[in-house]
Amino acid sequence: MYGTLYGTVYWRDRGGAGEMREVPELPELTQEQPGRGLAARVPFQMVEVMGPSMVPTLYHGDWLLVQYGATVRPGDVVILRHPFQQDLLIVKRAAERRRGGWWVLADNTFAGGDSTDYGTVPEELVLARVRARYRPLKKDQRSLWGVVTWAVSALRPVSAARSVSRRLRAR
To answer: Which ranges of the chain have pLDDT less than 70?
Structure first.
C-alpha cells in the first residue's frame, strides 16, 4: 500500500497480499523555480509496507518516511519501480552500483523479487530513499509493558547500518 500525504493509492510488493490499484507519478519540477533541480520536487512522503521481502528490517504494516531525489548509497533502503512492471512500486536495499544502475536485494532472502531475478535496475527507476520507519501499535501490545516496548522501538531511522555484504559474501 502506498499512502501519500495528500491521499492514498495502493500497490503491492511481490509476495505481498492485496490487489494493485494505482501508483503515483514522481512529483514534477515546478515551473516557478527553474534551476533548483531536486529541491523543486515534493521531497518527503509516507508509504506503508506490504509483504515480507524486507523482514527483519521492515515488516508488513510499517510506515516509511521516504525522500524523493535523495542521493542513494550502497546499503540504503530505496523505493523503486519494478523493472518489468513499472506501474508497481517496490522497496528493496540498494546493494551496489553497477554498470547500468543499481543491484538491489530483499533483506528476506526467501521472499525473492530482487536483482537476482531481474538484474540491474536502471538509475531512473530508483525513486526515493527511505529515511525512517514507524511501526504502528498492534492490538496485542495493549498492556503497559507492550506499550513501553512499542514506544522504545516505534520510530527508528532506516540507515545503511545493516550491511548487505554478509549476503554478497555468501554467493
So the answer is: 1-41, 159-171
Q: What is the pTM of this model?
A: 0.69
> Per-residue b/e over 110-143, b at no fewer than 16 CB within 10 Å?
ebebbbeeeebbeeebbbbbbbbbebeeeeebee
**Residue 55 in grid coordinates:** 523482514
Residue among 130, 30, 140 nearest 73 (CA): 130
Specify the residue for cell string 528476506. Answer: 108
